[in-house]
């Protein structure tokens, strides 16, 4: 099907055209979403919502402003960004621990390099307990400065000072290597 036929079929609410669109474009559009949202289940939900939005809003598509795929990709991209910014995601949006992330990469790529191989843990051992705690939660657990401040009842300025001091120690020790 040519792009003009797809647009006309979607505007006519033709079921075969919708099925064709899904069959031909779903993988590419899902790829757009997966670049923004790494959780496959959430990405599928966003794709489903986006696909419905595409079919319902086809009348707002203007051929003179760009190709159909670009318009659909923008809808998927914007939906993924909106989902990422939503309260639902932000409340569960803590990143995985670095070891989980590295394990995930190892299992996908087949490599067996460990975080320990680059000396991160040894460098962390040179920090004070307070600095180590802050760095662990910010860089390895995905917390923001504000979240640490609120959750552990540490003044925000203190959190930022500890981060700054810890980074200076880490930088100094990295320069020695």
UniProtKB/TrEMBL annotation:
Residues 21-87, 123-172 form the RNA polymerase sigma-70 region domain. It comes from the Bacteria. Keywords: DNA-binding, Sigma factor, Transcription, Transcription regulation. SUPFAM superfamilies: Sigma2 domain of RNA polymerase sigma factors, Sigma3 and sigma4 domains of RNA polymerase sigma factors. Coiled coil: none annotated. Belongs to the sigma-70 factor family. ECF subfamily. NCBIfam families: sigma70-ECF (TIGR02937). This is Sigma-70 family RNA polymerase sigma factor.
């Amino acid at each position: 099907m040519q792009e003009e036929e797809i647009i006309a079929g979607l505007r006519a609410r033709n079921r075969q055209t919708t099925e064709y669109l899904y069959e031909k474009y779903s993988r590419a559009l899902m790829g757009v979403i997966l670049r923004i949202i790494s959780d496959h289940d959430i990405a599928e939900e966003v794709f489903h919502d986006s696909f419905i939005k595409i079919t319902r809003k086809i009348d707002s598509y203007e051929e003179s402003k760009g190709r159909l795929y670009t318009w659909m990709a923008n809808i998927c991209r914007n939906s993924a960004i909106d989902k990422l910014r939503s309260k639902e995601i932000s409340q569960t949006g803590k990143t995985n621990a670095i070891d989980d992330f590295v394990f995930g990469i190892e299992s996908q790529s087949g490599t067996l390099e460990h975080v320990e191989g680059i000396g991160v843990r040894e460098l962390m051992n040179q920090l004070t307990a307070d600095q180590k705690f802050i760095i662990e939660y910010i860089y390895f657990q995905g917390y923001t400065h504000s979240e640490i401040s609120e959750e552990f009842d540490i003044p925000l300025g203190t959190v930022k000072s500890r981060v700054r001091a810890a980074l200076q120690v880490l930088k100094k020790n990295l320069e020695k290597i």
